[in-house]
Amino acid sequence: MSEGDDIRLQSAIPALRRYARVLTRDPHQADDLVQDCLERALTRLHQVRGRPDLRPWLFTIAHRLNVSHWRRLRRLLPAMEGSHPEPMQEPGQIPHLEWKEVARAFERLSDDHRQVLLLVGVEGFEYATVAEILGVPVGTVMSRLSRGRTVLHSLVNHEERPMLRRVK
Predict the structure, then answer these.
(1) How does pLDDT run across 123-141, given as a tens digit for each residue?
(2) Distance spanning both ends of the chain, measured CA to CA
(3) Among 86, 75, 61, 143, residue whose Cα is nearest residue 110
(4) What are 16-72's pLDDT values in tens digits?
(5) Could you say which of 80, 111, 131 is where a domain stops?
């Protein structure tokens, strides 16, 4: 691996971590996904020598690894029937310091909507690049983005807020 490859890979890690958190909704699983993705990327870095931005390629790897993970789990579920796994974290113990209203609403979105909103809105990818990462048509990306924005807007504007009493 050349020094340029090393720098390109390192500069993509923060974005990859954000995407992994969106995919997994769990910081520990996200770290594992990033680790697996980087391991796979290092063995295949020769495939993307000419690409200046490795994020789309890394996000595609992360997306496919996550899909494979859930498929494996789905196959194991019948074997685990009747057993109740321990929760990964205690309810209410969210490991973030502060949640704003939009962040709470974002978490309530479907996985499809969250992925597209992150890839287009945060990472700034074009629709065609997002379609390639997710393995869906461009029209599906545009539809998910539109619906995701609509749902997010609705959640932020109509979320129940505690009523405050007037103190005299």
Answers:
(1) 889 999 999 999 999 999 9
(2) 69
(3) 143
(4) 999 999 888 888 999 999 999 999 999 998 888 888 889 999 999 999 998 888 777
(5) 80
